[in-house]
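yo, BTB/POZ domain-containing protein is done. seq:
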Amino acid sequence: MKFMKLGSRPDTFYTCEAVRSVSSEVSSDLIIQVKGSRYLLHKFPLLSKCLRLQKLCSESPESSSHQLVQLPDLPGGVEAFELCAKFCYGITITLSAYNIVPARHAAEYLQMTEDVEKGNLIYKIEVFFNSCILQGWKDSIVTLQSTRAFPLSSEDLGITSRCLESIASKVFTHPSKVSLSQSHSRRVRDDVSCNGGESQRHNQAIRGWWAEDIAELGIELYWRTMIAIKSSGRVPSNLIGDALKIYAARWLPNISPRDGNVYKKEGCDSDSDSTIEMNSKHRLLLESMVSLLPGDKGAVSCSFLLKLLKASNILNASSSSKMELARRVGVQLEEARVSDLLIPSLSYKSDTLYDVDIVLTILEEFMLQGQSPPTTPPRSKLGFERRRSRSAENIDFELQGSRRSSSASHSSKLKVAKLVDGYLQEIARDVNLPLSKFTAVAESIHEFSRLDHDDLYRAIDIYLKAHPDLNKSERKRLCRILDCKKLSMDACMHAAQNELLPLRVVVQVLFFEQARATKNGAKVTELPCNIKALLTANGIHPSKPTSPLSTTNSIRADDQWSVSGLKSPKSRTSTLRMKLAEDDDLDINDMNPNGIGRSSKFKAFCAIPTQPKRMFSKLMSMNRNPSEKK
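structure:
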């Protein structure tokens, strides 16, 4: 830190009965009142350098031997005035980055200009400021911080703008050419490896050596400093992101889901001025940081963005800030973790533990950023393939069709699908989570993104256990998002014995498992006793001998459709669809706004070979009781 000494006389100021005076052979003739302090001084040294005191003395009448002058609004207060007064007496004063701003304002107020006397205080302060303060890194930051006490006048005098320019220009230079802070110098020494070389972390710290020092600034000055740094275009966006992360760690409170609930209670029950002021301060800080986020993908981590989003929820930040954070998270959602998405819900309109709506917004942004016009295949072929059912054969085609975007985009969708299924398992435990929100999150991911449905099935199982009061229709609607063909052997075994699942799902799981075993040439395993009892209780006789599933033309007579008059394959397919639609209760109330009401199981069922269709339809028709048929 640099400093400058002015004057050569020793300090002779003293205090007597709450009055400050200066030792002199000449009696004092001037009383100056500065706020709550009184000074007994002399006109000659003060008036010779202060034009304002000259004017005030000429306007006020003299009383007895002392003339009274009041300076109630002198910037910097008693300390700044005494510094100027000592300069007038020639007493030694020391200027540094810590007191140069109040001294400059007090000198401006007293009009200690060159017009009054050559080499006056304003001139000397400006020389020191330009030649020393602005040349030093730490001096510039300390001086900029001290302008917070005089924001408007510092702008008028050009102190703030010059400090900002100085700091921004030094960010572009190598730290060896500036004076680093003590904490950074110690960190650099710790990062030097044992063989004398520099570690990778050290090299990264060298590039962002400035971030921790400017993190000491208040948010207003920090925002302006970062704007000046960003506008130059010479600092990589990832270093800007690192600097924002350091600043957030320095000033934002550490918030977890449990802290969020406490914060909510404090915000509701406490109306103290300090709490309101603290909330407003943190809200302003957060919204300012959001506006500083670099636009490049990966400049800041997805985890950091989600922490900001969690804080914005708790601090009740503006909707524009939340949407901006959600948009940025959606761009790089594949980097997120399940714990990052567990954003506490503080809405008074919902009793859910987590804010599912903001996650739905993030998922929508993620799906939008991967879309692009199709380049292949031709329209006619694409239309034909889209009309085909989602069978195991055309899943590969859809994966290829999804490559209209980059391979990295497809890989990210697979990661996000796993992420969403893990998120569903967490929020499924919330007893207040509506079924509509659970299914909305599950259906927000394209079907081809889920290579298997084991994690999705686990989430559905957790939701069914946490919501035992779901009726039959709701359980059916929940299970429509599940594709039994994509369940592993272990998941199928668990689902076959899961009494919480609708019976049709259990039968479908058994059917697909037996069809898969037959296709692979394996022996069809015997059904568990409890499953046999469950099927028997619902009118299905598993002990009745049935031939193994086959794709040959030899079909047993009792496996044929029992509906007369439907002999052609086309008519059989129509009847099958009607029966499945009847069992699924696909009425107008279950249809989505876009008209898509049937689940993926219906499309997958239509892709099953002829004989398995007949057998499964027979099982389903036997399963329905008279009330269901109605």
